[in-house]
Design a protein that fits this description.
The chain is of the alpha/beta class and 150 residues long. It is built from 5 helices and 6 strands, in the order βαβαβαββαβα. The chain has helices spanning 14-27, 44-50, 65-70, 110-115, 135-149, and strands at residues 4-9, 30-34, 58-62, 77-80, 97-101, 120-121. It has a 6-stranded parallel beta sheet. The model has no long low-confidence stretch (mean pLDDT 92).
Length: 150
């Protein structure tokens, strides 16, 4: 069984997705790109960030966000958001879980907060002047914490 799975909902910045694809290739885990992407996967910035590791990345595209989540068990989902009160290290990660990250610009859709409110976690930011972390940094922190627990 897969250790974990990374989900990006409507990513907008090509190098972030490329960096995350490289990490998922290194960890041998799938990367789901869900919803409308803010770029074309052939974009040279995406390719450059993923370097020559793209052949090893298991990238799966799902154009419909609601359809993607409709088939998943809520207890296997971990949504990362700066608005969550629960620290990401306090979540219990299991084999096969999905770590879900939203768009760099708009975050995750509101209906996901409503439906899965208890499944949201955040990474700590100790300075109020820093409003968010880079998507690829957040995905790496979440992935390695989940793997550490597993």
């Amino acid at each position: 069984m897969l250790h974990i799975q990374i989900v990006l909902v409507e990513p907008q910045i090509p190098p972030n997705t490329g960096n995350i694809a490289r990490m998922t290739a290194a960890l041998n885990i799938p990367l789901y790109l869900v919803g409308k992407l803010g770029f074309d996967l052939s974009d040279r910035n995406v390719r450059r960030a993923g370097l020559d590791y793209w052949p090893y990345a298991d990238v799966r595209l799902f154009p419909d966000i609601e359809e993607f989540f409709s088939g998943l068990a809520g207890e296997s989902l971990h949504f990362f958001s700066k608005y969550a009160a629960k620290n990401y290290t306090c979540s219990l990660y299991r084999r096969g879980d999905y770590l879900v990250f939203g768009s760099e610009i708009t975050g995750l859709p509101g209906w996901l907060f409503e439906k899965y409110a208890d499944r949201f976690v955040s990474l700590p930011i100790y300075r109020k002047e820093v409003r968010s972390l880079n998507l690829s940094s957040a995905a790496a922190a979440g992935a390695y914490e989940a793997l550490r627990q597993i």
